[in-house]
Amino acid sequence: MKNIISEFKEFIARGNVIDLAVGVIVGSAFGKIVTSLVNDILMPIIGVILGGINFTNLTIKFKDATIYYGNFIQNVIDFLIVAFCIFIFVKMVNTVTTKKKKKEEEKKEPTKSEEILLLEQIRDLLKKKKNKD
Predict the structure, then answer these.
(1) Digitized pLDDT (tens) for each residue of the chain, 133 residues in all
(2) Is the separation of the CB atoms in 36 and 42 below 8 Å?
(3) Within 13 A of 10's CA, how many CA atoms are on the CB side?
(4) Measured over all CA atoms, what is the biggest interatomic distance in the chain, rounded to whole angstroms?
(5) What DSSP string runs through 50-113?
(6) pTM reported for the whole predicted model
(7) Which of 23, 81, 94, 120 has the CA that lies 20 to 30 A from 71?
(8) What domains appear along the chain, each with residue ranges and CATH number?
(9) 45, 69, 66: which is closest to 58 by C-alpha?
(10) Beta strands of 3-64 (E only): which ranges?
């Protein structure tokens, strides 16, 4: 049992798990913001543009069931906005990461091993000796 507890502590202490937890919490909060943006700002504007339609009231009656397709439209728009924001964020992170990698590659000068340096010195000495003869 102690082994399981120690493994669990190690699992929780890993950076990836903590990063994932933070991502889920921030993502949840971001989802609420986007939902509010869609429901409270965008959909009323779209409704006015389309002639005063309130999307939450768009329903279809089918026998005893009510299908709320207006809510579905709002959720699709909500998803598209979230997906677009995530796309832009990932694109920015990739751009920054790529620039950092390029700078690191430019900074790294190829270092020659001691053996290569010694061989080059021998080569240069042989050339000098050959030119003297």
Answers:
(1) 788 888 887 777 776 777 788 888 988 888 888 888 888 888 888 888 888 877 778 899 999 999 999 889 888 888 888 888 888 888 988 888 888 777 777 777 677 888 888 899 999 988 888 887 6
(2) no
(3) 6
(4) 108
(5) TTS--GGG--EEETTEEE-HHHHHHHHHHHHHHHHHHHHHHHHHHHHHHHHHHHHHHH-PPPPP
(6) 0.53
(7) 23
(8) 2-132 (1.10.1200.120)
(9) 69
(10) 60-62
The DSSP element (H or E) to which 39 belongs, if any, is: none
| Helix-strand-coil split of the chain, %, nearest 5 | 80, 5, 15
- 90 and 84 Cβ atoms separated by less than 8 Å: no
Nearby residues of 107 by Cβ (< 8 Å), 6 or more positions away: none
- CA 63, distance to chain mean position in Å, is 45
* Radius of gyration of the chain, Cα coordinates, nearest whole angstrom: 31
